[in-house]
Amino acid sequence: MKNLYSARISHLYDYDPLVLLNLRRLPGRVSIRGAAALLNFEPVAIRTLLMLGFLKPLGNPHSTEHKYFSTRTLLKLSENEKWLNDATRALMRHWARKNARRGTSRAPANGIHLLSPKSRRPE
């Protein structure tokens, strides 16, 4: 019965960061979603930080394998202001480069075009 209970809990905190953060004792390793909850980044940002070399998964997983991270290491990183600053800046540069390659000619997804105050027509 205990194994079934712990399997349910691990499945829950993998999908719900609130459950993970409210555990009495954090697990020794977490997935990308758990790392995102502990570091307060989006899961896609964790994948990007992994690609940029800011995070290293446990073991030596292939690119297509599921990745786990040490909870202790993530908690240390979450307290390291310099690492957080560097990681955040690297993510901003990454997304800026990616958006620049895409171009700015695309219309917003919601179809609303915002005009700057200088470009508004006088009424």
Protein architecture, described:
55% of the residues lie in helices and 3% in strands. The chain has six helices and two strands. It has 123 residues and is mainly alpha-helical. It has a two-stranded antiparallel ribbon with strand order 1-2. It is globular, with a radius of gyration of 20 Å. The protein has a domain of 82 residues: Multidrug-efflux Transporter Regulator, Chain: A, Domain 2 (Orthogonal Bundle). The chain starts with a helix and ends in a 21-residue tail after the last helix. The longest helix has 22 residues. Helix 4 crosses helix 6.
Task: Pick out its properties.
123 residues, mainly alpha, Multidrug-efflux Transporter Regulator, Chain: A, Domain 2, two-stranded antiparallel ribbon, 2 strands, 55% helix, 3% strand
In a few lines, what is going on in this structure?
It is built from 6 helices and 2 strands. The protein has helices at residues 2-15, 17-21, 32-39, 43-52, 71-79, 81-102, and strands at 29-30, 69-70. It has a two-stranded antiparallel sheet.
The CATH class of the domain at 1-82 is Mainly Alpha
**How many helices in DSSP terms?**
6
Strand order, sheet with most strands = 1-2
**Percent of residues in β-strands:** under 5%
Radius of gyration: 20 Å
Which structural class do the helices and strands define? mainly alpha
State the low-pLDDT regions, or none: none
The span between the termini is 72 Å
| Proper CATH architecture of the domain at 1-82 | Orthogonal Bundle
Largest sheet: 2 strands, antiparallel
How many beta-strand segments? 2
The CATH topology of the domain at 1-82:
Multidrug-efflux Transporter Regulator, Chain: A, Domain 2
Order of helices and strands: HHEHHEHH
> What percent of the residues sit in helical stretches (DSSP H or I)?
55-70%
